[in-house]
Design brief:
Elements lengths: L2 H8 L13 H7 L6 H13 L8 H26 L1 H7 L14 H17 L3 H19 L9 H25 L5 H21 L4 H7 L4 H5 L1 H25 L3 H23 L1 H28 L4
Length: 309
């Protein structure tokens, strides 16, 4: 039997569940590549903010991008889908696990395997890179898995994801470029954008309000209702950016501060439309306003890389 025939045989739905393995396409769907962008972008912002030459560090940058996106973020998605399979059966029944395309306990197995591979790759990124990976993976499991299952409360759960998606990758990108703890300026900006990302995570929870309420998960939209959660998300995104603007003015990066003011102003205009129908327009805002938010992250990173900061 050829390798291709063997794969076709093992993925055949007629086999007993214990003997089936998921198709590669299904595994990739479980890892949700669309979610990799956020940590990859934050990691690149960290790399830029270090002020080091990009061309002189290509191998370690590529390793970090792989770790931030497909590995650590992919792990978080697999773990979340496994422990959320009952919620997804209500909200997203076509996802790999509730649809039956991911048989048996393979969702859990992939989460465990990807965790181990992530840690193995992280050993190539120095002590700070490895430590950051450990923190990110711990938060990924704590977010979805019992007994902590941080996602059961929107405040702590969203904070864990925001740190995992924004702060830790930014820290990692800056740390591996110098093999040292990033400067206080870098840590402050990474923290502020992580706080703002809490609001982005709240918008992501709008799609699962019905399932969250049915299962008892206290996401902010489920607890506060769409209108109040939408207003909260907007303020949580606005205030940290105002703090970034103040920091940039204080560090004499006037043009950077003005650029972020412009980006924030457009975001606020878009927020007015979002708040008219927050539940329906949350995906639209994430494609528009959130894009402006992350552009501001990169502009800030270039300012941090400049001399004199």
């Amino acid at each position: 039997m050829s390798a291709e025939e063997t794969i076709d045989h093992l993925t055949n739905p007629s086999l007993p569940m214990a003997l089936r393995i998921p198709a590669l396409k299904t595994c990739l769907e479980l890892l949700k590549p669309v979610t990799w962008f956020a940590p990859i972008w934050a990691f690149f912002c960290g790399v830029v903010s270090s002020g080091q030459s990009l061309t002189a560090h290509v191998p370690i940058i590529l390793a970090g991008l792989l770790l931030a996106g497909p590995m650590v973020c992919g792990t978080s998605q697999a773990v979340n889908d496994w422990f959320d399979r009952h919620v997804d059966a209500i909200n997203e029944p076509n996802r790999p696990i509730p649809s039956g395309r991911m048989p048996g306990h393979w969702g859990l197995y992939i989460g465990i395997i990807w965790t181990a591979l992530s840690l193995l790759l992280a050993t190539r990124l120095g002590i700070w890179g490895f430590a950051a990976a450990v923190v990110a993976l711990a938060l990924a499991w704590a977010y979805s898995a019992p007994p902590l299952r941080l996602k059961q409360n929107g405040w702590g759960g969203n904070a864990a994801v925001a740190i995992c998606y924004e702060g830790v990758p930014w820290f990692t990108g800056a740390a591996i470029m110098t093999n040292a703890l990033p400067s206080p300026h870098i840590l402050l900006i990474a923290l502020l954008y992580s706080i703002g990302a809490h609001g982005i995570m709240t918008l992501n929870d709008f799609k699962s309000i019905d399932g969250d309420r049915a299962i008892g998960i206290k996401s902010l939209p489920a607890m506060l209702g769409a209108d109040r959660a939408g207003r909260l998300a907007c303020w949580v995104m606005i205030l940290p950016q105002i703090a970034v603007i103040g920091a940039m003015f204080g560090w004499h990066h006037r043009y950077t501060a003005l650029a972020i003011i412009l980006l924030l102003g457009v975001q606020m205009i878009l927020m007015l439309s979002l708040l008219e129908k927050p539940r329906e327009r949350a995906p639209w805002y994430n494609a528009t306003g959130t894009t402006l938010y992350v552009i501001g992250m990169l502009i800030s990173a270039f300012a941090l890389a400049a001399k004199g900061v």
